[in-house]
């Protein structure tokens, strides 16, 4: 016990600024590994390392005989460790931050544990020869980690008081529905990807869905999302919620950019470079939708307990257990 106290005496508290920078770095790193994971698939390197957790049955690392595909796949696996180190540093920073703040540790641990979970799903994709449904789950797991990292980043920048709504309840519900539709668009997008080219390997199977039909479903869901986003802008403006209005405008702009990429790649027979840009856009759509959700509420600083100014007032204050 004495040793623990002695160690804690020499641990320097982590500033809130450093903590928020680490959380932001975690968001960027997780978005980055989505993009590099897309590069693995788009270069047909998904089975560059044909097994998991080893790269081959005899080696944990790629060999020169495996060529470019082995290097790309193994490099992406190594990036997972870098992302994990950032998440671990964030957890340690939360533990070292003073004063301790409610909710931060749970979010930081969720991000940290989500990374090995996502890596295991990635390993299953290799062991199942890039089954398109598992590949889609691999992408969605990354989206969940990004959402947790974003929540941590936003929570660090808030005070610790109670949450207060800044828009009427129906508009908060509309924002939740819009976020839900955004998530549905991402899910259907994985079905579109699983039905088309760029399987990640020449021999990988497709999910069997008709590319044109599922692309139409995806387009319809995107139009619904656009309509909801426009409705949010006008509704937030009507109640004078400026911060929420700005967030909704950003969401609409990101959606329009993502939609433009989607249409161009569809009519140009899905070139690899546009698929990679579309994957990055998917991350940005999720982050923008979450920003709208957070803009509908705010936290106020904790109100300090009243202090007695005279001996008589001090005697009047009841003792607490």
Can you describe what's shown?
The protein has 321 residues and is an all-alpha fold. It folds into two domains: 13-160, no CATH class; 161-299. It contains ten helices and two strands; from the N terminus they run H-H-H-H-H-E-H-H-H-H-E-H. Strands 1-2 form a two-stranded antiparallel sheet.
Question: In this structure, how is the largest beta sheet organized?
Answer: 2 strands, antiparallel
**What structural class do helix, strand and pairing data support?**
mainly alpha
Spatial extent as radius of gyration: 24 Å
Measured as a percent range, the helix fraction is over 70%
Q: What low-confidence regions span 5 or more consecutive residues with pLDDT below 50?
A: 4-8, 308-321
- How widely separated are the two ends? 26 Å
Question: Which key phrases capture this entry?
Answer:
single chain, 321 residues, mainly alpha, 2 domains, two-stranded antiparallel ribbon, 10 helices, 2% strand, disordered C terminus
Summarize the structure.
By secondary structure, the chain is mostly helical. It has ten helices and two strands; from the N terminus they run αααααβααααβα.
Secondary structure: elements and pairs:
Layout: H1 2-10, H2 16-42, H3 67-96, H4 104-127, H5 132-156, E1 163-165, H6 169-195, H7 211-238, H8 242-267, H9 272-295, E2 297-299, H10 311-316
Antiparallel strand pairs: 1-2
């Amino acid at each position: 016990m004495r040793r623990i106290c002695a160690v804690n005496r020499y641990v320097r508290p982590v500033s809130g600024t450093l903590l928020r920078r680490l959380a932001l770095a975690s968001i960027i790193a997780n978005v980055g590994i989505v993009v590099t994971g897309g590069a693995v698939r788009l270069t047909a390197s998904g089975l560059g390392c044909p097994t998991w957790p080893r790269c081959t049955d005899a080696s944990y690392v790629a060999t020169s005989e495996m060529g470019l595909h082995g290097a790309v796949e193994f490099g992406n696996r190594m990036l997972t460790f870098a992302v994990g180190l950032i998440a671990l540093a964030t957890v340690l920073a939360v533990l070292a931050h003073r004063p301790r703040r409610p909710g931060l540790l749970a979010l930081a641990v969720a991000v940290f544990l989500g990374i090995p979970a996502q890596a295991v799903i990635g390993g299953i994709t290799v062991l199942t020869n890039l089954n398109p449904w598992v590949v889609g789950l691999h992408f969605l797991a990354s989206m969940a980690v990004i959402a947790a990292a974003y929540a941590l980043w936003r929570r660090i920048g808030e005070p610790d008081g109670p949450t207060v709504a800044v828009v009427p309840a129906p508009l908060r519900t509309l924002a939740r529905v819009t976020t839900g539709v955004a998530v549905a668009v991402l899910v259907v997008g994985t079905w579109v990807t699983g039905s088309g080219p760029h399987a990640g390997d020449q021999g990988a199977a497709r999910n069997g869905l008709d590319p044109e039909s599922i692309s139409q479903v995806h387009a319809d869901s995107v139009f619904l999302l656009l309509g909801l986003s426009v409705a949010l802008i006008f509704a937030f403006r009507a109640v004078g919620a400026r911060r929420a209005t700005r967030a909704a405008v950003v969401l609409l702009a990101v959606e329009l950019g993502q939609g433009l990429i989607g249409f161009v790649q569809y009519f140009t027979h899905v070139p690899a470079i546009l698929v990679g840009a579309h994957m990055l856009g998917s991350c940005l759509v999720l982050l923008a939708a979450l920003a709208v959700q957070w803009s509908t509420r705010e936290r106020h600083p904790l109100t300090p307990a009243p202090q007695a100014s005279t001996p008589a007032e001090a005697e009047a204050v009841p003792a607490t257990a």
